[in-house]
Write a structure and sequence with these properties.
This protein is an alpha+beta fold. α9 crosses α10 and α10 (350-367) runs antiparallel to α11. The structure holds ligand C2E and calcium ion (2 copies). One calcium ion binds next to β22.
Length: 728
Amino acid sequence: MINTIKLSADFRRSFLREVLVPLVAILALTYIGAGTGLFVGTSLTNSEARQQQQQMIEASFSQSLSEHLRQLNSLSRWGPLEQHLISSNSVGWMDENVGQWLYEMFGHQLILVLNPQNQLVRVWREGQPLAAPERDPLVDEVLQNPLVSAPARQDNADYARLMGRAAALAVGNIQRESRDLPGFRLVSLKFLDDGYLASLAERNQLQGLHFSDGSSQPGTDARYLLIAQAGEAVGYLNWVPARPGAQMLRTIGPSTGLSVLAISLLCLYMVRRLWTSSMSLSQSMLRLGASEAQAQHLAFHDVLTGLPNRALVEDRLTQALALATRHQQRVALLLIDLDRFKTINDTHGHHAGDELIIAVAQRLSRIVRASDTVGRLGGDEFIVVMPEVDNIGQVQSLAQRIVEQLSQPFTLSGSEVWSGASIGLALAPKDGVDRQELMRKADIALYEAKNGGRGRYRQFERAMDESVRTRQIVAADLRAALQNGEGLEVWYQPLMDIGGQQMMGIEALLRWHHPTRGPIAPGEFIPIAEETGLIIPLGEWVLAEACATQQRFPELLVAVNVSPVQFRASGFVERTLALVRQHGGDPTRLELEITEGVLIDDEREARAIIVALREAGFRIALDDFGTGYSSLNYLSTFPVDKIKIDRSFTQSLGVAENSVAIIESVVKLGHAMGLMVTAEGVETAGQMSALANAGCNQLQGYLFSQAVPADQLAALMKPALAERGRQG
Ligand code: C2E
Ligand code: CA
Ligand code: CA
């Protein structure tokens, strides 16, 4: 959750930085560029159009001025005019052909005829002669105008401001015969009034054309100052300038605005889409990352304890070894195996077993250094990798601490249980620099620790390795012997009555004559057969042999040793019974010898098997009684038929002080339970009589016979029979 929040903040920031800001910048630049272009283009077009209009107006004005002069000249340069000027009876003609004609023909509103002294000769206003022109203010102003009053007497035309109105004024010398003398002049005025402006506007398609003195809205309208030749301002010519740019803007404006809006909306939509899709992408990437991390964790950690699993520990060990080689350091490897895990699991349930594993993991994690790695290899096997070991004492004290800590009780679901652990220890580089080699050697040391009685640690020694190698060879040879039936034999040792005279039964004992090593003692190869599982076919073979022998000596009880491995194998009862039937054996005359070892691992199950075997008719003997850790009282609670006092007790007779007392109490206990008591390892007559005094029921030992092949049994039985015969 925190991650998601952090992600979205990060994501928001980077999205803003990498997508939104550049996009907005691009859009803004595009709009600004386009807007500026449009604006500049518009105003440029506008001002160009305005300039064009102004030029047009200027041209029209100068053209109309010259036209005005030309119109005047068409009369002033007309020869008959001078004649009529001089002649006094030509007034009517003059009125008709000058004043009236110019007004009607060209719209000249004021016509003056001046004599060479610049005095008024005749004046017409709008085609009509003026009666008293001297008093007319307009005439007066015209005479004051520099164009008229100037001494230079040339044809000329100009604009002027007269009576507050703009006007075109023209002066023309009237054609005459002698050119040396100053002659008459014709002056004409035409107001640039509304009519004039209207036709000008119409011709040039100008809007709102009008004159002003300059004070009227200079900002909005275009204007042009009309100046007379002398420099006098005649007036401003104002008009509403054409704005083709603005027009263009009006035309394309709405569509441009719409497309800007559309583009902006499209961008907004795209940004939204991009946002949601990249958001979901980054979220799914986060989820992917998380599940990847989870998978990574699962791949390298034990689910139950959370400790590194085999793969990770092996990896760490490899690294530590590589580092140690480079820096000439030592690495220690501790393999830890719980001693009573299976029993706890079976008696308290799998849940308790899991709890135990978790508790062990916690204790281990507390004990080790931070630089050490504690891992679980599976089941009840743990591992500790100690890199950078300074001295072996460090490792030994850790191993000892682990043994002590794990021998403390655990509280599982409210009840206290004791587990204990065995540890195998190997050191690099002494025991190997290779991971697999080191693991193998720690495993051998662990095996030795367990074999040596559990609840302890053992450090690897070279001799262990050799014994392991030997064991491997022996196992292979044993397998071969079992397959081809060569070198294996079952011999039998008699079980005598307490007087040592009567053979009550025989114990089947396995003999192996190795093809190259010669005879190998069962004490050596039986444990190997147990480790490798070979004991199961081997035991079945012995049982089959025993059945055959029993058929030869029906009066004898035949005892067969059963290994804990066989006993615990599933279906043991059924298989044993089937085998005995198959080989014609009689279960009631067969005694199965079991040891304490089968009882401690799972008491309930062991009891059930014993009961089942006895129900099938088999007799059960508790072998090597007194050698284990369990109390005699405890052992006597199992429903067996016989206890066999271990030969170490027999052999302590006369050596250890209280040996007789011990044997006596065992016998008493056995008898109290209704059991037979047999003593093993009887070698001397003294031992025999002591055991007889103690109350034993049967004896077995070299005093009577060693184990012999079945063929020799008959001979051994004879003296007993002879004895019986002698007594009978
Ligand atoms: P165990 O069941 O206690 O067998 C008795 C062992 O004591 C035999 O050793 C026997 O030869 C030896 N023994 C008998 N009398 C004397 C004596 O007076 N003095 C001394 N010092 N020893 C005596 P063995 O045959 O070497 O067998 C050793 C162990 O191997 C047996 O101990 C038994 O646990 C195991 N074993 C032998 N055969 C089999 C078998 O077929 N199946 C299984 N599962 N275990 C077997
Ligand atoms: Ca035995
Ligand atoms: Ca025994």
